[in-house]
Amino acid sequence: MQVPKLYRASRGRIVAGVARGLAEHLRVDVTIVRAAFVVLAFTGGAGIAMYAAFWAFVRIDPAAEVSAATNARRGLRHDRLGRRGQYVALIALTVGGVLGVQALGLGLPGPLLWPLALAGFGTLVLWRQADDAQRNRWRAAVGQGRRPALLTTILGAGLVVAGAATFLSYHEQLSKVRDGLLASLVFIVGVAVITGPWWLGTVRALSTERRARIREQERAELAAHLHDSVLHTLALIQRHVDEPREVQRLARSQERELRSWLYRPPPGEQQHFGRALERIVAEVEDSQGVTIEIVVVGDCPLDDRLAATLQAAREAMVNAAKHAGTAVISVYAEIEPGKVTVFVRDRGKGFDVDAVPADRLGVKESIIGRMERHGGKAFVRSSPGEGTEIRLEMTPTMARA
Amino acid sequence: MASQNPVRVVLVDDHRLFRSGVRAELGSRVEVVGEGEDVASAVAAIRAAVPDVVLLDVHLPGGGGVEVLRAVLPALPDVRFLAVSVSDAAEDVIGTIRAGARGYVTKTISGVDLTDAVVRVADGDAVFSPRLAGFVLDAFAATDVPAIDPELDALTQREREVLRLIARGYAYKEIAKELFISVKTVETHVSSVLRKLQLSNRHELTRWATDRRLV
Predict the structure, then answer these.
(1) For A13-17, A80-84, A282-286, B87-91, which range has the lowest pLDDT when averaged over its residues?
(2) Closest residue of A to B89, CA-based?
(3) CB contact under 8 A, A295 and B164
(4) HSE of A144 in the Cβ direction (CA atoms, 13 Å)?
(5) Model-wide pTM > 0.90
(6) Which ipTM was obtained for this model?
(7) A13 in a domain, yes or no?
(8) Are residues A256 and A298 in the same domain?
(9) How far is B48 from chain A (nearest CA, A)?
């Protein structure tokens, strides 16, 4: 197996995800890495310096960014809870740093030390914030979470300015500091006013460009899909104009494919009954050249018993397609807690249930027998001229346990 | 009642081919008195002709079938709408019904069945396709969430049975036979479900639609 690339973790982190990222890269327990950093921190602050270096130079895991975006869209905010903890950690880091400096006996006087600590904390907050910028962009896209980010930025900047001002005021007269601050402020505002329109223009151009790129990508994907599926089918249909059955089959299977592409969610990792039944319906439609109307209410994960039910349902559909002499079959499945029911119905010829010869294994073995072997039931209702309906009932394994 | 005079219908669909196909398929019981190809032309055609029934495509340029319903229904509450769509998306279908359409059928419906559906809507009945019945059963599935308005927020046992049979592909006549009730009673049940679907504020309905779109 490949060694995971070194990224900073974006979840399960305390400060910037350096320790967890390293732990995943080295495949050791995260506690060991954290302990190592703490121990190293006492050897002349080497741990802190290393941590800072990793923070600055290692990127956040891009894959995690995407899942963070997905989660944000779903309204899950997994690291919301951890945020307060992260600030505590930042404060602890600052205080620890200050105490460390004191312990090393650099002997900075108190009035100089604490402003520096304040500014240091502000800087940490700002850097931490920059980490979040990427994910906040995603969140902003779904219309949440921008205000807290802004607030944190202002808080961080304020802390840095306050720290700097206090540091200056220790050396200089307070009035001079005020003058200096005022001058800086005027200068900054001036620069902002002059370059403002340019900045705004750049930002707008960037976002327009990004939007255009996304649209272009979507269009390309759509075009590729239509080319592979619809255009291909249309070509096939033109070559089969003399075979109405084949044309119908092509059109039907293309319709189904396009529908599932347009309206169905991307497949999850777990197999579900509803989806599996739809697949079987598609198979039978394709192989038998019939139209099957399928309606599914509710859904549940697939298990052995339900797989057997699917097979029985498939057999029922094939029977209907072969013997009923009708082009339309209705399939209805309802998944209730503890019970799955499937109906397969046609309005075709029908038959006399009692008159089925014993050697006709279709219904008896592959439908009724199969259901009963797996602890379910099957009922056949039919009479000549009235069509046939087969009802399958099954209790999923999980519900029974 | 509508069997003597042909039902006057306006066709609204942005595909000309589909409109001419439907025109050809509809039987003599139905007379097409206008056509629309987007929201604006549909509203104009309906206002001019004041038909009995509008065959309304769910997806229309200019805001969709829902916009046509919003523009027409307040002024002409007697015009009845039957939604026709290729869409399988539950939120589109439920949205159109909640905006006032009295039924929903898919575009693959046969000409005979479509004519039947139009006549039935003209008579004031609701028309549910199997798929719509499935959507409704899903939306009103029994949950632990207490109903805000018990009369509107839950289906009765009988309504549920009727919807199940529709989903199983039964025609109204077959349902009546199956449940030992009259066709009229079946129609009453379906209309009652339609009313609940349109009026219920059951938040399950919206949450369910949202789930469908997102997950």
Answers:
(1) A80-84
(2) A263
(3) no
(4) 10
(5) no
(6) 0.78
(7) no
(8) no
(9) 36
